Known about the structure:
By secondary structure, the protein is an all-alpha fold. It has one domain. Helices cover about 85% and strands about 0% of the residues.
Amino acid sequence: MPELFLLALASAVWPTLLAVDVIALSTPRPAKILFFFLVGGLATSVGIGLAVVFTLEDSTAFTGSSSVADPVVYFAAGTLALLVAWLVANPPNWTRRRKKKEGPGWSERAIARGAALAFVAGVALNIVPGVFPLVGLRDISQLDYGAAATLALVVGFYLVMFVLIEVPLIAYLVAPARTAAEVGRFNSWLRNNGRRLAVATLYVFGAYLIVRGIVAVFG
């Protein structure tokens, strides 16, 4: 269970979600953009997450507390996390040139253009679970809980994953004036430090998952 919570926190600082925060908080109506992105992203993530969990529960390769697939899952997820960290820290020249030439990507444009397109972006960006959510869903599938408990765990996981979307949204609802005054400072910090935060998290948890894979092999 502690690993599940840590994986959800690591998922919260995935580069895409940090970019969504930066873009949404730069719009004239950030609360509306954040809300519709959250609705689309949360509904999609929970639906697909449940499908993944129930599929893994029915798979003999993933059953048992020490299934033969454990090292493969940990090594693959850890390696992919390290690769993403390196790419975010050292973006290839062709991506830089394309961004300068074409400007923001479709998801960034969609989020900035309004609530309906923010909802679409929330759905589209969460159709495929990320690296850490996949490991988390695998962990949930091995708990072998009932349907209600499994639903609660999947929903809880994604509520933690979207925490950086939820916190400013709640702040706008509770204290709109104060939040509006402070959001510029927070967004500036996120622009300047978001990439470093994401890279550090990816490196730490990528290494952690690889160690977990080694433990699964020799444990």
